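SEVERITY: medium
COMPONENT: batch folding queue
REPORTER: lab tech (J.R.)

DESCRIPTION
The queue accepted two submissions in a row. Attaching both inputs and their returned C-alpha cells so the on-call engineer can compare them side by side.

ATTACHMENT 1
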Amino acid sequence: MKLHNLNNRTVVITGASSGVGLAAAELFAQEGCNLVLAARGKDALEKAVQTCQSLGASAIAIPTDVSDFKEVEKLAEEALKVTGTIDFWVNNAGVMATGKYEETPIEVIDQVIKTNLLGYLHGARAILPIFKKQTHGILINNISIGGWMPAPYGTAYSASKYGIRGMTECLQGEVSDEPDIHVCALYPSIQKSTGNMHSAKYSGLDFKIPPTASDPKILATAMVEMAKNPKKSKFTDLSSLMMKGMYSLFPRPIINATSAGLRLLMKEDSETDTDGNVLTPSKNPMRIYGQTMLSPSKKQKNLILTGLGIAALVFLSRQLKPKA
C-alpha cells in the first residue's frame, strides 16, 4: 500500500493540541487530509483545528482522554462520520513523569501507564475492526527510543514504552494476512517540543531539553511518510539510532552513567516538583516547540552529537577495560 497523494484522506491524531501532535496535524493539513484531532484540553484543541483550517484543511476537534476506552470508541465513531472511512490513526498522546520511583505518587505512576500504554491499546482496539471492515488502514504508533532503552528516572514511562513496542510487534503479526492494513512504529529520540515542559517532575529534578534534541517537525514528517509508504518501523533521527546501538552493546554502563548525570540535577528540596499534565490537561504553552537549554545551529548540533559520541565511547572503553 503506497500512496502518493493524501488529499481527502481521513486521519485521526491523538495528543494533537501541542508538541509533536500539533506538528503532525499541520503537516497532514498541508497534504489535504481531513483531520480529526483529539486531546484532553478543549481550548487548545480548538486552536489546533483553527490552525489546520487556515491551511485549507477540513478539521474537527473531539476532546478525548485516551485512558478511557469509551471516549476512544466515541472518537472513532465521530471520525467515521467525516467521510465514512478512517485511513490513518496516529497514536501519539503521551505523558511522562521523571524522578525517583519511590517519590513519584502512585496515582501519577498509574496514570502514565493508563495514558501511554492503555491509550495506545485503546486506539488500536477501536480502529482495527474499522480497518478490517473497510479492508485498509494504517495505524502509526509514536513510541520513542524509550521502547528500546530505559529512560533514567522515568520508570513508569519506560514500562509503558517497552509495552507499546511489544503491542506493536504483536499486532504486526496479527495483520500480516491483511495486505492493505499496516501497524507502524516510530522510534524518535527526545524532542524539542513542549512535552518536557508539560511533564511531571519529582525529587527536585528540573530536567531541561538538551540542545541535541530533535525537531518535532522531522518526526511529524516521518508520520506523513508512514502514511504514504508504511513500514514496520523507523528510527526517525540519527541520535535515536545511535542510542539504540550503544545501549544494545553497553546497557549497564549507559544506564548507570545517564542515571548518575540526572542525579546531579536533583535538588534536596522538592519545591520544583509538579504533576505536570499527567493528571490534568496540558497548560500553556500550547505550541510545537518547547524551551531548551541552548539553541545551537545545525552545524553546532552535529558537532555536539559527535563530541558526545566520542566521549561516550571513551567512557565505555575505560569502563570495560580489564582491571589489573
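ATTACHMENT 2
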Amino acid sequence: MKLLVTGGCGFIGTNFVRRMLGKHPDWSIVNLDKLTYAGNRLNLLDLEETNDRYHFIQGDIGDRTLLMDILSDAAFDAVVNFAAESHVDRSINDPSPFVTTNVQGAQNLLECARRRKVGRFVHISTDEVYGTLGDEGKFTETTPLAPNSPYSASKAGADLMCRAYFETYGFPVLITRCSNNYGPYQFPEKLIPLMYMNAMADKPLPVYGDGGNVRDWIYVDDHCLGVELTLLKGRDGVAYNFGGDAEKTNIELVRTLLSILGKPESLITFVEDRPGHDQRYAMDFSRAEEELGFVPTVDFASGLKKTLAWYAANGTWLEQVQSGEYRTFMESWYEERA
C-alpha cells in the first residue's frame, strides 16, 4: 500500500508513520508537512536516512499545484490527513490560521485526491467537534456537532466537508474522532509535556479554573491503531470514535504526574479559566469495537509512566523543539545533502 500522509511530522502523524512502516514491510509513505512550529522533521529524520519506503516533502495542503503534482507522480492507495492547527489557546488568540488550514486546506486536499482518483481518504478529527458533556453520558458518532472554540469549529467544518464529498461525489472518505492523545513526540504546549517540563524545572504548573474539567485520554499508539483499522476495514462515509476509556480531571492528572516525578503539589497554580472551556469529554467507541475490532491496549497509568520516561530520556529533543535549534540543524542537514 502507498500512502500520502499529511502532517506526518506532528505528534500523532510521527507515531503513525513509525507504526505503519514498522508493522507493514510492503507499505510506503510519502509525508507532506508544512513544518509549522509544531511540525518537527527531526522526528523522522532517521527514516529519511535509512528507509527507502519513506519520503518527505515540505509543503502546504493548501497548495493545489503541489498536491496535484504529488498525487500524479504515482498512484496512491490512500490519503491520511493529520495536517491541522491544533492548539485551542492559539485558536482563541487568532482563529484565521485554523480556518485556512483546517477547513480550506482540508477541502483542497479532498478535491485534489478526488480528481486524482485516490482510493480512500481518512480524515483525522477530534472529540471536540461534539462540544461538551455534563456529568453523565458519552459522545457517539450520532451526537450533533456543537463546537465551542475556533479550533473545534474549524475541525467540525472539515468534517462536514468530508461528509459533503462522500454524499455529493461518492468519494470514499472516512472520519476518525479521538479523545485526548498523549505519548512520545508531543509538542510541549500540550498539558502533559508542559506539566512535565515545568515540574522538572520546579516552575509553577498552571491549571485552568479549579482543575475539574474532565478529559478521556488515549495513548497515541492506540489512536494510531484506530486510524490503521479505519483505513483497512472502515466503511466509506462513516465516522469512528476512538477513546482510551480513561476519564481524568485535569487536577487529578497533574497530581498523578507530580507523584510519579516525586515533585510537590505546591507547584500547582490555579489560573483564570480559558474562554469556552468544555467541561467534559468522553467517547463511546462501541462502533469501532464492533466493526473494526478496536480495543485500547494501553491503560492510563502505564501509558503516563511510559510517556514521562520518554521525555526524561529525550531532554535534547525537548530543548530543540522549544529553542528552534532543530530548524537550524535541519537547514544545515538539508544543505549538506542538496
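NOTES FROM REPORTER
The mean pLDDT is 94.
No errors were logged for either attachment.
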